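Archive maintenance. Older records in this collection stored only the sequence; we are now back-filling the structure field for every entry so that each record is complete. The fields below show one back-filled record exactly as it appears after the update. Entries are processed alphabetically, and Eukaryotic aspartyl protease family protein is next in the queue.

ARCHIVE ENTRY
Title: Eukaryotic aspartyl protease family protein
Organism field: Rhynchospora pubera
Length field: 451
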Amino acid sequence: MAFYSVSVLLFLAAVLSSCYAHKLGMDFHHRFSDKVREWTDSHGLPPAWNPEEAPHGSVEYYRALLKHDLHRHRGRSLASGELYAFARGNKTYEYLGNLHYAYVDLGSPSQIFLVALDTGSPLFWVPCNCKQCAPTSDSSYGNVTFRNYNLSASTTSKTISCSSSQCFTDSSTECSSKTADCTYTIEYGSGNYSSSSSGIIVQDYLYLTKEGTTSNVVYIPILFGCGEVQTGDLLNGGPPNGLMGLSSSNISVPSMIAYNKAISITNSFSMCFGKDGYGRLNFGDVGSKDQNETSLNSNPSAHYNISLTEVVVGTTTNKLSFNAIVDSGTSYSGFTDSIYLKLATSFSAQVSEQRINISGIPFEYCFETSADQANTKIPSVSFATQGGSTFRALYPTVPIYDENTNRQFAYCLGIIQYDINIIGENFLVGQRIVFDIEKQVLGWKPYNCYS
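Back-filled structure field:
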């Protein structure tokens, strides 16, 4: 949920020396990939968990994805080392709200949650002490029943008082008594498309394990929100079981893991995006020496914001200076009017196939698929970043299929007009993206996510 507002004071846990030694890993899948469709079928999940039961690549498929993106953004401007994963394994899935999800264990004894992984949010929260939360069971969940976090059931849980040095919200400055709870409110979106979570800040153990083993479990204390009241899409259609913030904020999960003595890792993580929706998420990964890099721009929202100086489409170079957010939770890349027009017209001018209009499709620049698809020449799309490195979109187009015959009949340039500039998931496919919070660097490299 890319645009949020959260009342946060400058907070930094006692920063422990974090020599690079380990990384934490997991797999993720696009929620509309074939692998996830197979998983939902095997777990009894209904078609509601897929995009309107739309065939992959159909008009309805892309319309369903766009619906979430517009909602999401309305109103908002390998090194060597041991690999760790969440204790339940390294699989993650992308479901409701177009976010990636992973199973995590909290507390003693452990309680299991399926939480959304959000690079655009700072705070980790789960439903707890519920006054207004999403239902734990619903027809849209199929045979899956979620749970709410139970403070009293965990022997290691601890509420944080507003007078504590661990209270990072505004409640620390509005503390009515030393024993009053540290409270939080985090908002997503705006206006008719807003949602929020509010509650108290608690501390408990998050469980991790070495990838490939089941015996070497590591548990670290982290701060997270006990979400008592959820509103908007968080009650219907959004993450029903919690959300894990992966932004560059000091209170995000990557930062809290890096600050802890239990595991010595760099405050950095990577996401690798496979063409079929399969992927990996590695905490502590700083990438490799041969990766491309650019500096992250400082911004109060803790988004992963970079500066671009050129848009290169095929043989055409457009000198354009602008900033863009790199956001894995957005399906389609999008640009403001002038940049969108330059990119799209440069692309269209170098395509030999007939341009066509497709009713209901969210893309404007679409072209008939030639009879000999092997000879279709698609112009490359790349961006020059601040510092000189080139970021190339390996798969700038999306195929469009006939819903009846399942035959591809067109392809479209996969960009949308937004009121901000976003490099979305479709431009990240085929690459490992490194979010190095410690060095304030974004890295990328073409990568085989299966290796």
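Update note: The radius of gyration is 22 Å. Residues 1-22, 35-53, 70-80 have pLDDT under 50 and may be disordered.
Entry marked complete.
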